[in-house]
Amino acid sequence: MDGNFRPTRGCPHVRDPYAFPAAFCSSGRHRRGIDGDRAERTRRRRRAADPEGVADGRIDDLRWLDAARDASVQLPRRLLSALRAFRHDAGPDGVLLLRNLPVVADDPLLPTPAVKGSVERVPTVAASVITTAMLNLGEVIAFRNEKTGALVQNVVPVPGSEASQSNAGSVLLELHIENAFHDNRPDFVGLLCVREDPTGDAKLCTSSIRRALPLLSEKARTVLGEPRFLTEPPPSFGALDSVTPAHAVLNGDPEDPNVLVDFSATHPLDDEARQAMAELRSAFMETMSALSLRVGDLAVVDNRLAVHGRTSFTPSYDGADRWLHRVYAHLDHRRSRVDRAGDGAVLG
Known about the structure:
The protein is built from seven helices and 17 strands. Helix 1 (about 40-50) packs across helix 4, helix 2 crosses helix 4 and helix 6 packs across helix 7. It has helices at about 40-50, 60-70, 75-90, 125-135, 210, 220-225, 270-285, and strands at about 20, 95-100, 120, 140-145, 150-155, 175, 190-195, 205-210, 230, 250, 260, 265-270, 290, 300, 305-310, 325-330, 345. The strands form four sheets. Strands 1, 2, 3, 4, 5, 7, 14, 16 and 17 form a nine-stranded mixed β-sheet that branches. The chain has a four-stranded antiparallel β-sheet with strand order 6-15-8-13. A hairpin with a 6-residue loop joins strand 10 and strand 11 (about 260). It has a single domain, classed as 4-Layer Sandwich (Double-stranded beta-helix). About 20% of the residues lie in helices and about 20% in strands. By secondary structure, the chain is of the alpha+beta class.
């Protein structure tokens, strides 16, 4: 297995970026350039962070989530159109890139957190922007065993976790379907860049089964479509003494399947399954794209069609390291009701 990904292209297969002016307000108007005085722009961005001033400023309070859901329909028209088109069909790459979204008001950005389990609890412009965007793809969810069930999670390097195959690590993060072991894994994963990697080494890598499938042999397709694989929970879930039952890696329409694999946690049960999984990884590597996320970039990955990972990088832990917000969404909220206590947003 390679020590690092070596994509041969930048990111040509990602759907064309949609750029939006930084003046984002909860009224839904799409304003270009300077609009009003500084105090007015700041007020509007803070309204975007907490549209109704509800829930005492707590993101995980369902009243704030309800207010965010109401505000989500007031996003700029082009943004709504892009998100809904992506929800309808994620295209050949299964990735949508949105650019120039606001991440702060006029206040300076805080230092990058560097603690295990870092999350956002109090509304900020960045946390609100990613939440309202993801609510146009489905219902926002979290997992109680992952970062205490916070809806907006920080993806940051953590001292001592460099070698971890998790969002806290800085070694090569293998291509994977997010929470592949879970029956109610998210359908979409949103990653909003709050601070870019100063070294430029950390790149989001994605690859779609729609690109990789034509490169697979008929034998590999057959084996990958059979329940000959097991997947463990990721380190971010802590100690869970369980794995999924044996499952197929490819499922659904054989000509346009979904994919279910984590190359650091999915284990083939026999030699043919091992060979087929190696062939799949090779196909993903051949069709992979890499992207250095910039501040204000929101990358949305269709978690049914596309695997994602990250190249290795060297953090400095000086407050200036790469910082992403992560939010999950799924399409069928009713399906997961049995796992969501009190009809909330957190799966147990």
